[in-house]
Prior knowledge:
This protein is an alpha/beta fold. The protein has four domains: 5-104, PriA, 3(prime) DNA-binding domain (GIY-YIG endonuclease), CATH 3.40.1440; 125-249, Rossmann fold; 257-298 and 352-471, Rossmann fold; 479-557, ACT domain (Alpha-Beta Plaits, 2-Layer Sandwich), CATH 3.30.70.260. The chain contains 14 helices and 26 strands. The protein starts with a strand and ends with a strand.
Amino acid sequence: MIMVMYALVIVKSRRRVDELYYQVPQKIIPFISVGSQVVVPILSRTVRGIVYKITRRLPSHLRGRTKPIAKVVPGIKFTSRQLRLVDKLSSSSAATLAEAAFLALGKPWKKEPLGRDQGGNAKPLFIQAAPVKRFEMYIQLAKRFPSQQFLVIFAQNSFLGDFLQRNLPPNISAGTIKDIFKQLTEGDFLIIDQPSHIGARFKLRPYFDATFISEIRAEAERLRLVFGDVLPRPDQYQKITEGKWRVYKEPVKPMNLTIFSGPTSQEMLLESTARQISQTVDRGGRVLILVAAKGHSQALMCLNCRHIFKCNRCKRPIAVQISHLKCRYCANEQDKPSICPVCAAGNLKSLGFGASKLTELIKRRFERYRVQELSGDSVDLRPDSQIVVATEKIFSYSSILFEASFILDPDRFLAGTNIEASWRLFYQLLLLKNCSKSLSVQTTFAEHPIWVEAASESDNFLRRIIAERKKYRLPPFVKTVEFIGHFSARSDTEAEVEKLKEFAAQHFQEAEFPDYEITRQSAGRLTVSQHLLCRRLSLVKLRLLRQELPPKWFPYVS
């Protein structure tokens, strides 16, 4: 009796990856096994694929419709540990096996490594320190454990370049997110630098980030996990307070912090702030002026009683649009008021200025100095610039020093119209402490506790953020799914988002849908991000929802 065998093969063709069944010809049965690389036909051509499973049973709808495997590629085989990792990545997310394998199975590991049982179950460690100090600690750890391998993953190429210029011990290798699946052995160290940075995430489906991948790898392979940044995210801090993670915190660096109270009108630059900038440059010092990048919404505040306007539906702070108010949390829209509901005054102010408008003002006001603008589209930092007007791009330099730094527009971060805004401001304050001799802030909220908390690097800030998020029902107290979609610029984006919400609401009846964002726009294409917030998240429901959605949408569990 002839034994008929079938193989589930993961194949990649042009823009997609699939799991497809193929018949295993009798002549290659002795040479094929799980993990083998094979050549298979797909449409009118042949491609390489990876054997994920071998079985005698075939789904009934495929009987009589499978094609035979063309050949086995000799000498190339992925290990069972790699395939188990793919299975774990897929089962812990909404990604298919093929999508997880597309990222994880770059190169076959050499052989099944022997377990060494050298501390692989240790709790993850978070190193809270400035970039240069973190780099030193990674190297010290590697020297302390010379028999273990260390893989350091950087979110930014500039940080990777700076790190590689150091005198590294032979047991350290470093790379970016694309190198995160490099082979390690039980007890080895996987270090993720700046896990909250956008660069610590794949830009292709299934959009896994370094934190998710590293935690899966650490559990599956008994690796020791280390994270490094100036500040943990709220969900990471929650793990620290619950004792699930350990933390090392660098001793507090003294901070010369000056607060300029105001402006009390729509004035963007106070005279006292401008005077200090001029005095610093005249003394030969270099000045950094940090401006908010796009995506941080303005809030509406009464200057008389300091009331911040909130959404009528969800009671969270609401953002200002051109002609109305729109909630970034639940997408509710309401009329823009002319008077304050608390004190009946008409002295209302939109908190925050546009980055480009603020930059133009700086260039006009300080035209006798060499002013450089540094943003996402700008060239590298010029060594002769006296005043640098920069967005967060300035933080891509791991070791740079300014005589003085200024934040002229922090108020929009403090109003609470965006989920991550206040955490992002605190993060920037800590970074500025490490690249400036002094820091000055021009703000309407001079009495806000964040300034003292930043100067002392107090955990009170994170405790307060956790309390606020619990009050407003925000992560980590609710589950978050980010739906990422790609459209042409001519598409009706709002209509596409509304269709998505209708599908999602059928499976998650109690879900909230914050306002969507266009996160990228280039070459006539848009990348759209739509979040879903819910108290309970079922991956089974999410996978069912994904089957109903147009293929342009992908759900990522963040």
